[in-house]
Design brief:
about 180 residues, mainly alpha, 6 helices
Length: about 180
Amino acid sequence: MNDLMRHLLRKKIVPAVLSILFGAVLIIAGREALDLMVKVAGWFLIAGAVGLVALYFFRPDRDPSNAAITWPMAGMTALAGFVLIHFADAVVDFFPILMGVSLVLNGLSNLAEAAVDRENRILSGVIGVLVVIFGLLIVARPGVLASAMVIYMGIFLVLSGIMDLWLLHTVKRELL
């Protein structure tokens, strides 16, 4: 086996297997896995805030003007991490609500366009009504969309990992 194949196997097999495992966890755990991901992101933000403060103190050229930027940035980063950790459910529910409101506004825009446009009035009107209804459903039940997104992410990760392993197997067979 040549060096290129060894390098390819070493660099690609582990991420492919981890992709399959992480995707399976997302499919099985669903919403709880998304909450955990949000909390982990919160811990990373808090670690980043601590890193900013440490960088300020251990930098050899501790300029007082840097404090005006470093401290507020560290504080906002830590606050964002705190919010993600302690309000993970609300954060997970917020994004689908934001998407739903965006869809409602987009649908209303389509309806306004249908009122003005003579050529595609029916098509624009029907699309506008459907988009508004879909947006209102998302706003009314944001958890359903969040759970569905987690399952789709899991399915995608599993399929991606399987495709990577299949590609590695095919390349290995062709090179040998």
